[in-house]
Design a protein that fits this description.
Helices cover 30% and strands 19% of the residues. With 666 residues, it is α/β, with parallel strands linked by helices. It has three domains: 311 residues, TIM Barrel, CATH 3.20.20.80; 202 residues, Class I glutamine amidotransferase (GATase) domain (Rossmann fold, 3-Layer(aba) Sandwich), CATH 3.40.50.880; 55 residues, Sandwich (Immunoglobulin-like). It starts with 8 loop residues before the first strand and ends with a strand.
């Protein structure tokens, strides 16, 4: 019978079809040496499993499954539907994706299919069923892996097949064309539709496309990709009951096409791929934010890190190799924020193909390399902390996050191109983490009753229900802080009239009559958050008080003399508003006041360079300390440090670049 995923599993994508059979035995021997106990198998193997329409070849996969089982290695078995074989595109060119400007994307890379294509779906489900029926009871099977990074290269397709599917999606959403016209504001620019058949995807147009049409197409595109997962999942549930099904998300700064907070409800276990950006000097901070968002996507449950890199990748303009110890630090950071498996792309670095310069567990240099030795060391670290598997976070601060708000915020024709969605969320997360505050990143529609601090950053689009939930949290005693460009529109991207910030105006006790965006490179000074003024840029507002008090003012600039930060008592809580983009030190000063007001407990030893998090189980808690700095760090904690096995009392020293995991004594 299939077996569960091992606790704190280590492994990665395994592509034996890229290698001759004499390499496979060596692979298994080296996997055992490295402590690999879970591999993702067959992700891009469709052309090997079905080399022609009427020919199937499973013998090679049978051997791999049997041999991996004999070696004690569990398998996350892919449905192989991520990249159709060339013969399928040749027979059915109508299934190929088309860009916004009408260009067909041809085979030769990967994911060359339209997500709405019934031809693709028919053949994908046939392959999925064949695999499910053949391997449902194989003892090596631990997990099913549907497709791969759905939407990574074909998130939006504008072909005629997609256009027809989009119209059906719109019919289901609006019921009749009059409701669509109202939602899309088609009285503007003579866009009124008389029939759904007149509607197209937002293809390249002479002027700015209708913003609600763009927003709905993003919703539709995410839903189509999710449905690709759901139909495969349902086949696997039918033929392979009891085996969990996942698909690897891409929760990171660069990916916004899929609404993963919605997708998370459809998978049996959330798994995520995450890659650091080489040009980001503080990439570990983005990693921490994305990992917390992945945990939020999983509803707070542990999740699986399905892919990251041991060192450099191949797809960035300049692919920096990770520094010594960085692979262990980044892996442990994911575990600290809720991952219960650490997997990589890939097991053995490829000799050929577009990803031949992508790092792997087994590098081109082989086992006589620093990278291999660090992989073996990582395995030992994971073994030493295996007891944390299954534990969760227990935080009292939340950052609200919504992919639809991200889509709406970054549409065209807005007051400033410099207003971006993740910017304020990541800055508050950075400041809270440095202050020793554990943070959940959750959807605005989540249960907020557990949180004493709720951050609402750049929530441009918000429903009435979610705005009311934020207000209720403040009434019930939470400290709520809302940033600029929040509450501006409803779910149809219609302005909430009467003054900004629209949906949050009454809660905050402020009213803005005009936005005053700053020009590129312009900065202003805000007084009232520290002993000296702090810098701000990008944004200012003609802000009036309507029940709130001013905490800080603009000292200069277009909003000179006007409030920049306000506070209003609400019920047993408070609601703050930040009407400009504070520089990091300004956010730090503000966060200190918010944390004190909310009465939040701090994690010991945290700083800008020292990441401290806590996972909590039924009978124990574990403090993770990851020192990203260049100096040793001292952390006041008592318990057993699991990596070294030594007892600590009150003062744990974590060397520069080092990691520690302490089972705490209470």
């Amino acid at each position: 019978m299939p077996t569960p995923v091992p606790p704190l599993a280590l492994g990665g994508d395994y592509n034996p079809e890229q290698w001759s059979s004499d390499v496979h035995a060596e692979d298994r021997d080296l996997m055992r040496e490295a402590g690999v106990d879970l591999v993702t198998l067959g992700v891009f193997s469709w052309a090997h499993l079905q080399p022609a329409l009427d020919r199937w070849e499973f013998d090679w996969l049978d051997r791999q499954m049997d041999d991996l089982q004999a070696a004690g290695i569990r398998v996350d078995l892919a449905t192989a539907t991520a990249s159709p074989p060339p013969w399928l595109a040749r027979r059915h060119p109508e299934m190929l994706p088309v860009t916004q400007d009408g260009r067909t994307l041809w085979p030769g890379g990967r994911q060359a299919f339209c997500p709405s294509s019934p031809v693709y779906r028919e053949h994908a489900l046939a392959l999925c069923r064949a695999l499910g029926e053949r391997y449902a009871d194989h003892p090596a099977l631990a997990l099913w892996h549907v497709s791969n990074e759905l939407g990574c290269h074909n998130a939006r397709c504008y072909c005629d097949v997609s256009a027809a599917a989009f119209r059906e999606w719109l019919r289901a959403r609006y019921g009749d064309v009059d409701r669509l016209n109202d939602a899309w504001g088609t009285a503007f620019w003579s866009q009124r539709y008389g029939d759904f058949e007149e509607v197209l995807p937002p293809r390249i147009a002479p002027a700015f496309p209708n913003p609600t049409q763009q927003l709905d197409f993003l919703r539709f595109s995410s839903d189509q990709l999710l449905d690709n997962f759901v139909v495969e999942r349902d086949v696997l549930h039918e033929v392979s009951p009891g085996v969990p099904v996942t698909t690897n998300f891409m929760v990171m700064r660069q990916t916004f096409e899929m609404d993963y907070l919605r997708w998370g409800r459809e998978v049996d276990v959330v798994s995520n791929d995450h890659y650091l950006m080489a040009d980001d000097a503080h990439a570990h901070r983005e990693l921490a934010f994305s990992a917390d968002l992945t945990r939020g996507t999983a509803g707070g449950a542990p999740w699986l890190l399905m892919e990251h890199s041991t060192s450099a990748v191949n797809w960035q303009p300049r692919n920096r190799a990770k520094a010594p110890g960085e692979t262990i630090r980044s892996s442990l950071a994911h575990v600290a924020h809720g991952a219960d498996a650490v997997l990589f792309f890939q097991w053995r670095a490829s000799r050929a193909g577009a990803e031949k310069f992508h790092s792997a567990l087994l590098p081109h240099a082989g086992t006589d390399s620093r990278l291999w030795r660090e992989v073996v060391q990582l395995s030992e670290v994971l073994d030493s902390i295996e007891e944390v598997s299954g534990s969760r976070a227990d935080n009292r601060a939340a950052i609200l996050y919504d992919y639809e708000a991200w889509w709406g915020c970054e549409l065209d024709s807005h007051p400033s191109i410099d207003v971006t969605y993740r910017d304020r969320a990541e800055d508050f997360h950075r400041a809270l983490s440095a202050a020793g505050i554990g943070v959940d990143v959750v959807h605005p529609g989540s249960d907020l009753s557990r949180y004493r601090l709720v951050v609402v950053p750049t929530l441009y689009l918000v429903t009435d229900e979610d705005a009311a939930a934020v207000a209720a949290a403040a009434e019930a005693g939470a400290t709520v802080v809302v940033t600029y460009f929040s509450g501006i529109v409803d779910e149809s991207d219609h302005i909430r009239l009467g003054g900004y910030p629209g949906a949050f105006r009454d809660l905050l006790g402020v009213r803005t009559t005009e936005f005053l965006p700053l020009v590129e490179g312009e900065s202003v000074t805000v007084e009232g958050l520290g002993d000296a003024g702090v810098s701000a840029d990008v944004w200012a507002e003609e802000l009036e008080l309507a029940g709130a008090e001013a905490v800080a003012h603009h000292a200069d600039g277009p909003a000179g003399g006007r409030p920049a930060v306000t506070r209003r008592e609400v019920g047993t809580g408070a609601a703050w508003y930040v009407a400009t983009r504070l520089a990091p030190d300004g956010t730090d000063h503000l966060v200190e006041r918010l944390v004190a007001e909310a009465g939040l407990d701090r994690l010991p030893g945290a700083s800008a360079d020292v990441e401290v998090t806590r996972r909590v189980g039924n009978d124990a808690s574990w403090l993770f300390v990851i020192n990203h700095g260049s100096e040793d760090a001292s952390v006041p904690v008592t318990g057993t440090e699991l990596v070294s096995g030594r007892s600590v009392s009150d003062d744990l020293v974590v060397p520069a670049g080092g990691v520690a995991v302490v089972r705490e004594e209470h």
